[in-house]
Amino acid sequence: MTNEDNSEETTEPVWREQAVSRRLVKTRERAKERVQRFLDAALLLIEDKSSSDFTIQEVVERSGQSLRSFYQYFDGKNELLFALFEESVREAVADISAAVEIETEPLDRLRTFTFHLYDWCAPNDSEARRGEFNRLPITEFSWNLGMRNPERVGNVMRPISRTLVRLLDEAKEANVLNIPNTQHAATLLQQTVMHSWLFARVVDDTRSRVSREEVWAFCQRLVSRPSEVQAAAKLAVELCKDL
Q1: What is d(CA 238, CA 234) in angstroms, rounded to the nearest whole number?
Q2: Smaller CB count within 10 Å for the chain: N or C?
Q3: pLDDT (average), residues 170-175
Q4: Residue in 233, 212, 239 with CA at minimum distance from that of residue 110
Q5: Beta-carbon neighbour count of residue 134 at 10 Å?
Q6: Res. 242 pLDDT band, cuts 50 70 90
C-alpha cells in the first residue's frame, strides 16, 4: 500500500469535519459569553466602588459563575483588568475614527483626533463622558502597567498610533504640515496629549490645568512648519508658568 493510499484512508469524512466545526463554533460562542459576563461584572463593581478595588470572588459572585470558570479564562485580576483596558482602547479607536471621518480638512481631522484622545485620557474631566462605564480606574491601571510593561501597553495602543500617523501623512501630503518624520511627530503629539492629562491630575487648582484646546494649540505648532517651532517652544514656557 502506498503512502497516497494511506493518506486517503485516514482522511476524515466530510460529515465528521462539519460536525466538529459546528461544535467548535458553539464552544467558542459559549466561551465568549462567559468571558463577557466576567467583564460586565467587573465593570459593575467598578461603577459601584469608583475604583478597581474589588476581589476575584466579588467578580465571580456578580457574574453568577464559578471560580473555576474564572481561572479557565483569566490568570488573575490583573489579566481581567488588562482585558477591560483592551476593550476601552478598542472603543476609543472606534469613537476617534468615527469623529475624524466627519471632518474633511487635514488640520480639522488632526484637531478632532487630539480632542477625542484627550477626552478618552481624561474620562471624568470631560464635559461629555465617552463610553458606557467609568474608565478612570482602567486608565490608572494602564498607566501603572505601562511603568512595568511598556511593550504590552504599547501593543494595545498601536491602533491609535497608526491612526495618528495616517492623519499626519495626509496633512503632509496636503502641504499643510512640513515634517520630515511623521512617525516621530506622531509620538510627540500622542505623548503630549496623554501626559498633559496625567500631570494635570497633580494640579490642585483646576483653573491652572491645561485644557484640550491649549494642548491642541501647542501640538499644532509642534508639528507645523519649522518657522513655527520656536513659537511652540514659547507657548510651552507660558503654559508651564501657569502651573
Answers
A1: 6
A2: N
A3: 90
A4: 212
A5: 19
A6: low
Distance separating alpha carbons of residues 163 and 8, to the nearest angstrom: 49
What is the DSSP-derived secondary structure letter of residue 64? T
As a whole number of angstroms, the distance between CA 91 and CA 46 comes to 18
Residue pair 139/121 in contact (Cβ under 8 Å)? The answer is yes
Distance CA 25, CA 3 (A): 33
Check residue 185 and give left, alpha or beta (phi > 0: left; psi -120 to 50: alpha): alpha
**Grid cell listed for 5:** 493510499
Give the distance from CA 140 to its chain's centroid.
Answer: 13
The pTM assigned to this predicted structure is 0.75
Question: Do residues 181 and 106 lie in contact, with contact meaning Cβ atoms separated by under 8 Å?
Answer: no
Rounded CA separation 123/100 (Å): 19
94's CB contacts (< 8 A; 6+ apart) are: none
Place of cell 511623521: 182
> Helices (DSSP H) in 174-228: which residue ranges?
182-200, 212-222
Cell of 14: 466530510
Give the C-alpha separation, 40 to 84, whole Å.
9
Could you give the CA distance from residue 29 to residue 36 in angstroms, rounded to a whole number?
Answer: 11
CA distances from 70 to 24, 26, 37 (A): 20, 19, 10
Quick: pLDDT tens for 134-163: 777 888 888 888 888 889 988 999 999 999
Side chain identity, residue 71: Y
DSSP state of 210: P
